Recover the amino acids of this structure.
């Protein structure tokens, strides 16, 4: 009985809790885009794999209302920043980010002082009805103030 309980405890510890992974292509089609541009249903422990396939871009968390450019290091609770990655010199590198919560996260490219962001190079994790990807994109396209 005691041995069985021990085995059960070991089994519980040994089985890793694997989250889902979501793949996002950064700079797909040599364009200033994240593909897909939004992902919903991301849970704590899930990962997002950003693969950089053109030019030199970043995936950096930013604010919903004043997105461009995102600040180095990212902003917000559990914000993140992949840093810049150049597909030509690095051979289409990938960066894996682990998501820690179920909150919305808004992401943009910080290249060229926000120029890519202004062109709509944006991405949302767990957008909501109030904080929708469409409005975030609109904010990026029309963001007149460089606050960072
Ligand atoms: Cu970019």
């Amino acid at each position: 009985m005691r041995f069985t309980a021990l085995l059960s405890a070991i089994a519980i510890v040994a089985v890793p809790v694997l989250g889902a992974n979501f793949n996002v292509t950064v700079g797909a089609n040599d364009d200033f885009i994240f593909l897909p541009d939004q992902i919903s249903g991301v849970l704590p422990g899930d990962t997002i794999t950003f693969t950089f396939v053109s030019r030199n871009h970043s995936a950096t968390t930013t604010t919903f209302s004043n997105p461009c450019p995102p600040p180095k290091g990212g902003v917000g609770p559990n914000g993140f920043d992949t840093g810049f990655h150049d597909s030509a010199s690095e051979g289409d590198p990938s960066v894996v980010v682990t998501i820690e919560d179920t909150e919305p996260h808004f992401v943009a490219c910080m290249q060229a002082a926000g120029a890519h962001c202004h062109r709509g190079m944006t991405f949302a994790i767990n957008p909501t009805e109030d904080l929708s990807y469409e409005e975030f994109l609109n904010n990026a396209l029309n963001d007149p103030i460089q606050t960072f």
